[in-house]
């Protein structure tokens, strides 16, 4: 290791004659952990061997007096000599070195230490030093523990992340005052100042603003009404909710708000529980956005991947075995994202068979057996308030589906067009995927969303409406719309679907929706940098490189990210923290195995989504609950069992065998699908079962708890399955002996044929 470091330190040289120059500057001290090879250390662990090198040696002509051609160094730790040696300048081809390996040091006690290096050449001498904190390796995980503990106990992610950064900064600085200053100036401000991070911020803001414009125009509502005309029973209503969730693939917040708010009245009228709707909304938000190449997630995910590729490339001099493009690796990782893939397939199976298990089966039977149109026991109508009313379309707004579809088509086209353009090297020998893999995704996503927002603004501006219908405007209509009318009249006037003011107002509302997420994003980036500074990456690297079988890394990365996201409630924050800790050690431990590295990337990304999916403090979990007007804990309690099932299948048939090389990836996916089918038909039970049978888990609970409510519900299920109308019974008493809600949601009025066609 030391010989390799010495060789690397001599790569940068000044092309001058060696022996008639004196050393006048020793440059800066660079520290590298010998065991893991991680360099640019800001802190060191006690009893760890640390390689010391100098970067930026300065030389000056000595007026023609030649030296003996030897460069000597002595390295001290707190005044005690730790290493000494020399280098023959003749060995470097009569070129002056700009770097020097200066031996190793080892701190045996914690605290503040001074590392001093004295370099001499002939009679010339140069000195440089550096102060550094030393502590036991286990201390480095303290900031991470602070984040996890506070996330669980306070349910405040922002406070938890900031507190973790502050604690870590104090450890690095060795004092509280400097630690607080470094928290803001060193970690948070540097996270904000990064150009790549700026691209992600702008792209996220522009896409969120665009989504709000689509919502304000009435295009989104028009699309959902078009879908709803085909929903005539519970199965078709669930299909409609799922389709809306899949189509809104580009943003998890937009997906949650649109599908939750617009489909709630429809599925209520079809006797579907709020818990089931909240599950569909939540399960088609992050799982789809995280694997879509065109979404508000892709910029962040690709950026994290690219940062680690760059770190690996820099460490190994550009000679790496994985693809150098973050976008290419992102696309390659999709087939290893077992959790979102299996979750989406599970939902399709549940809808097709109308089967459920556990708490979801109970919630569905309580709603469908008694034909409740209030969403069932999990409904909170009137308690949670209405989401997104500030950006709702006007009452007389024509709800045209194409006002949603065309901007999305433009966005997808521009993204792929700019990806191809930024990835074209001009050789004419690249195919489409070569250009995509070589593209600059930051630029493509940003300019595409900006362009689509401008095109959409103009598109809405030139469409005129009057009395709720689109019209071909006259010259006076255009004049009045843009410049105002001098004549007062009580008659409705023609106007643009969205004026410039309307578009800007909705755009700002859209940006405001993701502002809290951007705060978490900034703190997550800062946390990632802090984890490196405090040495948590070295601790993970020592575990992974020294004691973990590389074939277990896809599974370990999945589980670690799952539990962290579950505790913190943020998938983005989990990704931002874990990528710098896991990916470089994974590359080293696997000897650059491309499949293991890609599967580990997928493990972090999909594990973060899985943990976020069942965390009660996750923003998307809370937002799904609010948008569907379903109780938060009712939503979490009915969704979590399905998450656990998919997690187990993802590990047993995905991450474990792909790491061990047991079978090709497609075999694991096929086996996972077969197990899902077996689960649906073997464990899950029909909602309206002629026998009223419970699934094994619920049956076990019923036998242990001897719950009268479940026994009665089972009997009523048999009656309802035989065609008996039990809707009147719910007016007197709920199944769980609670009082009946005083109000029920009205059945959604189906759109007319003309509205549906629009």
UniProtKB/TrEMBL annotation:
Residues 291-653 form the Na+/H+ antiporter NhaC-like C-terminal domain. It is found in: Cell membrane. Its main location: membrane. The chain crosses the membrane at residues 135-152, 159-176, 196-214, 234-250, 336-353, 404-422, 442-462, 504-525, 558-582, 642-659, 665-684. GO terms for cellular component: plasma membrane. Keywords: Cell membrane, Membrane, Signal, Transmembrane, Transmembrane helix. Residues 1-18 form the signal peptide. This is Na+/H+ antiporter NhaC-like C-terminal domain-containing protein. Pfam families: Na_H_antiporter. It comes from Cylindrotheca closterium. The lineage of its organism: Eukaryota, Sar, Stramenopiles, Ochrophyta, Bacillariophyta. Residues 373-392, 729-758 are annotated as: Disordered. It is a multi-pass membrane protein. The keyword Lipid metabolism does not apply.
């Amino acid at each position: 290791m030391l010989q390799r470091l010495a060789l690397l330190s001599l790569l940068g040289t000044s092309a001058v004659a060696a022996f008639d120059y004196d050393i006048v500057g020793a440059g800066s001290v660079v520290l590298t952990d010998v065991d893991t090879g991680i360099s640019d250390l800001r802190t060191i662990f006690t009893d760890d061997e640390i390689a010391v090198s100098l970067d930026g040696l300065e030389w000056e002509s000595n007026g023609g007096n030649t030296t003996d051609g030897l460069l000597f160094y002595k390295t001290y730790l707190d005044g005690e000599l730790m290493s000494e040696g020399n280098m023959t300048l003749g060995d470097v081809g009569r070129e002056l070195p700009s770097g020097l390996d200066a031996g190793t040091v080892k701190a045996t006690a914690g605290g503040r230490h001074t590392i001093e290096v004295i370099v001499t050449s002939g009679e010339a001498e140069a000195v440089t030093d550096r102060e550094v904190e030393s502590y036991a390796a286990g201390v480095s995980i303290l900031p991470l523990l602070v984040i996890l503990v506070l996330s669980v106990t306070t349910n405040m992610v922002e406070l938890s992340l900031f507190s973790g950064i502050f604690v870590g900064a104090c450890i690095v600085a060795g004092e509280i005052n400097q630690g607080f200053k470094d928290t803001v100036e060193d970690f948070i401000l540097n996270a904000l100042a990064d150009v790549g991070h700026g691209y992600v911020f702008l792209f996220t803001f522009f896409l969120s603003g665009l989504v709000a414009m689509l919502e304000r125009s009435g295009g989104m509502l028009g699309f959902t009404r078009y879908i709803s005309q085909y929903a005539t029973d519970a199965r078709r209503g669930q299909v409609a909710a799922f389709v809306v969730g899949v189509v809104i693939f580009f943003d998890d917040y937009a997906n949650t708000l649109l599908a939750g708010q617009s489909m709630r009245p429809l599925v209520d009228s079809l006797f579907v529980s709020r818990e089931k709707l909240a599950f569909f909304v939540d399960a088609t938000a992050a799982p789809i956005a995280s694997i879509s190449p065109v979404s508000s997630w892709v910029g962040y995910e690709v950026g994290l991947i690219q940062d680690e590729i760059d770190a690996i490339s820099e460490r190994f001099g550009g000679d790496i075995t994985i693809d150098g493009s973050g976008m290419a690796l992102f696309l390659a990782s999709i087939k290893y994202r077992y959790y979102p893939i299996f979750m989406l397939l599970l939902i399709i199976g549940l809808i097709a068979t109308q089967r459920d298990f556990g708490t979801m089966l109970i919630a569905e039977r309580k709603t469908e057996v008694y034909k409740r149109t209030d969403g069932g026991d999990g409904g909170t109508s009137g308690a949670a308030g209405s989401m997104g009313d500030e950006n709702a379309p006007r009452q007389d707004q024509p709800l045209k589906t194409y006002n949603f579809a065309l901007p999305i088509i433009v966005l997808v086209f521009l993204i792929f067009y700019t990806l191809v353009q930024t990835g074209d090297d001009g050789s004419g020998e690249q195919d489409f995927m070569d250009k995509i893999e070589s593209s600059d995704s930051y630029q493509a996503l940003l300019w595409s969303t900006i362009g689509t927002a401008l095109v959409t603004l103009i598109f809405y501006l030139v469409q005129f409406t009057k009395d709720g219908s689109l019209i071909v405007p006259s010259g006076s209509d255009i004049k009045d719309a843009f410049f105002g009318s001098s004549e007062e009249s009580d008659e409705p006037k023609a106007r643009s679907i969205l004026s410039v003011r309307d578009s800007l107002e909705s755009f700002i509302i859209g940006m405001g929706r993701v502002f809290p997420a951007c705060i978490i994003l900034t703190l997550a980036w800062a946390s990632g940098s802090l984890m490196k500074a405090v040495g948590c990456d070295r601790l993970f690297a020592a575990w992974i490189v020294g004691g973990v079988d590389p074939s277990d890394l896809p599974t370990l990365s999945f589980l670690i990210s799952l539990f962290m996201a579950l505790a913190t409630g943020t998938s983005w924050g989990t990704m931002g923290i874990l990528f710098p800790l896991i990916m470089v050690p994974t590359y080293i431990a696997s000897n650059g195995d491309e499949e293991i590295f890609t599967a580990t990337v997928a493990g972090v990304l999909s594990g973060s989504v899985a943990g976020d999916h069942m965390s009660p403090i996750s923003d998307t979990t809370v937002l799904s609950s609010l948008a569907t007007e379903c109780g938060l804990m009712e939503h979490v309690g009915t969704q979590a069992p399905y998450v656990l099932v998919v997690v187990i299948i993802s590990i047993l048939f995905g991450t474990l065998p792909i790491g061990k090389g047991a079978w090709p990836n497609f075999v694991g996916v096929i086996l996972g699908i077969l197990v899902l089918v077996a689960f649906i038909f073997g464990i899950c039970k029909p909602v309206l079962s002629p026998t009223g049978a419970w699934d094994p888990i619920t049956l076990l609970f019923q036998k242990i708890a001897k719950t009268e409510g479940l026994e009665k519900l089972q009997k009523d299920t048999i009656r309802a399955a035989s065609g008996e109308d039990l809707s009147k019974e719910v007016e007197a008493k709920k199944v769980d002996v609670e009082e009946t809600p005083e109000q029920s949601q009205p059945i959604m009025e189906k759109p007319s044929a003309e509205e549906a066609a629009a």
